[in-house]
Amino acid sequence: MFLGCIADDLTGATDLALMLAREGLRTVQANGLPTDDLALDGVDAVVVALKSRTIPAAEAVEQSIAAADRLRALGAERLFFKYCSTFDSTDEGNIGPVADALLDRLGARFTIACPAFPANGRTIEHGLLYVNGTLLAESSMKDHPLTPMRDSDLVAVLGRQTARKVGLVDIADVGRGAEAIRAVFAREEGEGKAYAIVDAVRDEDLRAIGAASADLPLITGGSGVAMGLPAAWREAGLIAELFEPAARLDAPAGRRIILAGSCSTATRGQVAAAREAGVPDFKVDPRAIASGAIAAEDVVNWVVSQKPDGLAMVWSSAEPEEVKAAQAELGREAAGALVEGLLGEVASALADRGFTRFVVAGGETSGAVVQALKVDAFAIGPEIDPGVPWTRSVGGRPLALALKSGNFGAPDFFLKAWEKLA
Q1: How far is CA 103 from CA 53, 61, 133, 185, in A?
Q2: Using one digit for the tens of pLDDT, what is the confidence trace for 168-205?
Q3: Residue-level pLDDT at 157
Q4: Rg of the chain over CA atoms, in angstroms?
């Protein structure tokens, strides 16, 4: 293994694993620290999925360092710290504290921070992060229930999370290619800066950034910045060969289900599109779960009663006003935990009843579902939409899983995902 990756949530890990696989690295994703029996023969990259984005910073650091030590023990020569393309965090962290700790662990002085992913509408220009052409602080992320993003200036955002100096590689330098970018890296490091936010508005920018970053022991960013790394490492002789990813996933036979826990704008649109297409649906509300009006058994019985060869959807996606009302009544974290717990129970019960194909929306929801299904690792399959692949469980019960970040995917994602299964 050459590359070890640490992701702060499950769908972010899958997003990065897809990018690496798409660009030619043999990639396996582990949910938590890789187990001793995880087969790594012929594997180029291992992505460890943590659930550390919104936990206390000290705990995030502890978990991330444990993952880094495990990956290095398995032979990783480079580390990648993956966070969301919208830089989801608070002024206390967790991006800065984890990156600081990883730099210290490696004895490194400098790295980059680049969450850009133009294919999903995330671009950085003059240090400002845009979401589909709108400044981050003016996008729907400003109302995120756990990590509301009210500042678009990534130099300032990261600067509040670390005592180290933060610099910038401006789009003008990025546009001049890898050599120019490396020259700015050297200048920023020479000025005592430990981090450089790197602008990117096109895939070509990401490939140039990857080439410029190939020698860095630690890289931090979204999955987009990994786009140029495999080719750069291959050219440098660090990776023996690159491979072509499969166009379809050989999925286990069985029934299928959509579980949508995210309340993001993209997921709400996907839920609406599925309902408009006539997909049978069951809405769950955290207040109904808390009162006992809805239990996992009720949802499971409804799903099982649908046509065996058809598609059904269980969803909790709500408008911001409805989310705030539920949080006010139940508590911010408790409201989400109730939904995640119920959908995890539903997924486990459905798997016992012959469901093998799951589309899951939302990072926290995906984590709860994967934990409930006891999936320790999976292989990466074909891309459905930018940042979202099908995966197949490794070991244990055979399952096909599409784990979608709440913000990712086209409006028809829930409808078209199944076309990638063989």
Answers
A1: 18, 12, 32, 16
A2: 999 999 999 999 999 999 999 999 999 999 999 999 99
A3: 98
A4: 21
For the stretch 123-151, pLDDT in tens is: 999 999 999 999 999 998 998 878 899 99
Is 98:139 a contact under the CB 8 Å cutoff? no
CA torsion 98→117→198→92, rounded to 10°? -30
Are the CB atoms for 418 and 376 separated by under 8 Å? Answer: no
Structure tokens at 276: 């408009």
Question: Whole-model pTM?
Answer: 0.85
- 361 touches 270 (CB < 8 A): yes
Instruction: Give the Cα separation of 299 and 283 in Å (integer).
Output: 9
Q: How far apart are CA 100 and CA 279, in angstroms?
A: 47
Q: What is the 3-state secondary structure (H, E, C) of the chain?
A: CCEEEEECCHHHHHHHHHHHHHCCCCEEEEECCCCCCCCCCCCCEEEEECCCCCCCHHHHHHHHHHHHHHHHHCCCCEEEEECCCCCCCECCECHHHHHHHHHHHHCCCCEEEECCEHHHCEEEECCEEEECCEEHHHCHHHHCCCCCCCCCEHHHHHHCCCCCEEEEECHHHHCCCHHHHHHHHHHHHHCCEEEEEECECCHHHHHHHHHHCCCCCEEEECHHHHHHHHHHHHHCCCCCCCCCCCCCECCCCCEEEEEECCCCHHHHHHHHHHHHCCCCEEECCHHHHHHCCCCHHHHHHHHHCCCCCCCCEEECCCCHHHHHHHHHHHCHHHHHHHHHHHHHHHHHHHHHCCEEEEEEECHHHHHHHHHHHCCCEEEEEEEEECCEEEEEECCCCCCEEEEECCCCCCCCHHHHHHHHEC
How long a stretch of residues is the chain?
Answer: 422
Torsion of CA 289, 269, 411, 304, to 10 degrees: 30
